[in-house]
Amino acid sequence: MNSLFRIWAILSKEMIQMRRDRMTFAMMVGVPIMQLILFGFAINNDPKGLPTAVFIEAPDQHSRTIVEGFKLSEYFDVVTAVSNYQQADDLFLKGEITFLLVIPADFTKKLVRQEMPQLLISADASDPAASSNAIAKASVIVSKALNHDFVGSLNFLKSTKPNVDVIIHPKYNPQGITQYNIVPGLLGVILTMTSVMITSMAMTREREKGNLENILAMPVKPFEVMVGKIAPYVLIGLIQTAIILSAASFLFEVPFLGSFMILNSAILIFLLANLCLGFTFSTIATTQMQAMQMTFFFFLPSLLLSGFMFPFRGMPQWAQLIGEMLPLTHFLRIVRGVMLKAADFSHLANEFYALIGFIVLIGIVAIARYRTTLD
Amino acid sequence: MNDFAVDVKSLVKEFGKTRVVDDVALQIPKGQVWGFLGPNGSGKTTTIRMLCGLLTPTQGSGTCLGLDIITEAEKIKLQTGYMTQKFSFWEDLSIRENLDFVSRMYNLPNRKAKVDDVIARLDLTQRQHQLAGDLSGGWKQRLALAAVTMHNPKLLLLDEPTAGVDPKARREFWDQIHELTNQGITILVSTHYMDEAERCDQIAYLAHGKLITQGTVRDVIAASNLTTYVSINKGVRQFASALKAEDDIENVSYFGAALHISSTNTVAIENVIKRAPFDSLDWQKITPSLEDVFISLMTSVGNDKRDYQ
């Protein structure tokens, strides 16, 4: 009987403490809601509406019909028309398109002659999961669309057998090896997790252990504290990078086609972005526990909405918008672009600007949040 | 420049609606040790933090070492040592690493020699690589004092430095304090110990955020206008509650086996001790102790009427 009283005593104390710790409480409610929304609405293993460019060498009725068919399909979203392969390659390297549909000049001639004309679909296969379903549907979309044209004098072409040869050209990762996509991405994920987490403890630990008052009583400026706290973890981040890149090369044999310099600068900038964010968390959180929770709250969407686990282009617009605000999204484009596609700086400039913009913004917040007094 | 190391007036600090420090003025001449007294929560720590730039005053102004406490806090920090109430050095750093860190923060020349010297003076050479967290309370306090004086500050602010420290360590600590003032350093030290208050050049007494009295110990006692009688008769303690019930006696307190009674009204207190049953005791008039004065001050100030929100 006494045992029950003591259990009740502990239980009610726990309840009081839980109620006091708003942050933990908010996390316990917030995380499930966030997971429900992200997994329920944002994530799609059957990505649709993937950006597609079309290259029509000789526009005519049938090519228009095919493009129309693609536009009407759920899988392809025709965003632009290009007039040569160079243009298309640039768009691929910038990651703006997933597919290129090429309709050759002699398409209609061969179609009428029943010579099985070729239709080329180039696919960015660096993420095999993103493109495979759409590719599988391509032939059906083409024949369905063309059947509408086969009326009157062309009625004889109507057939249940395919009359077009759809050729798929998977670029960048022709064998569709998942590791090629995952391992470079993992670099970004690991750097995000460790660097945000470690720096988010930076000021909170001082505060929790009572050292903050001592630091504040010394003549040191916020900027100096921030740089001094962040710098060691840049080094640790670089060690992690070396480990992951070596594993990528020797263990998983992921190709490295692009420039090492570009990747290295991206890693440095990306590290800084995450460390600044962690430092900002640590000026907001009052306990290390809260800092951990904030890190987790940031890490979850980073993992799910950045394009690491699920195809970025397959997510609804609002989810892509959130994704664009996360440093990992931009870093993934850079690291995959450099390693798998040999993209150069001109293709990745926007991603670099986004990362730098993030650092500036978060840096300002961090310095503004840092208090030189105990007020 | 003036001759005051600390010269502040009308200092006010509010946290939300709570006025923690209310219109405090202090003028501490250079080279003196001042004791900062008052009950827990009276605003001592907050006042000290305002002096060294850790808190911005809600109202009021003043200077520390001739530097404005609001606009020149950074410069004040360079010349001030602040020892926090709770040990605030790094428990997961060794003694030597802590001192190294401090001397780097102040960019002290000849760092190694300086740290060696401090460790030798502390008599910690054998233990310099021990973690600061493993030190006992007395040693932590010595380490902290050594660390906050490394950069030769002109002003030392010590917040209850001897709380929880054994009498021998306290005595040694105070020897050091006086040695430091001999070098011209000004010290403001908050304490709850009366014997420590008596070692100070002057004391300032704070209650409920207000400065109640200040001056030398003798001045403070004289200014209290207190008349105190002591009785050491056997069984005197039995009279305590009856004495407390007397309106004319402001406070009754035990001092070992003796009983002190005090009042600001000399005639009234003398009437009480001439009356039965108190006349059965032997009463002797004494100079009130600092403790008598403080207890009387606390009683006369009454309850804390500040708004806590």
UniProtKB/TrEMBL annotation, chain B:
Entry keyword set: ATP-binding, Nucleotide-binding
Source taxon at top rank: Bacteria
SMART domains: AAA (SM00382)
Limits of the ABC transporter domain: 6-233
Lipid biosynthesis as UniProt keyword: no
Any Pfam family: ABC_tran
GO MF annotations, alphabetized: ATP binding
Stored InterPro entries: AAA+_ATPase, ABC_transporter-like_ATP-bd, ABC_transporter-like_CS
Transcription as UniProt keyword: no
Protein name: ABC transporter ATP-binding protein
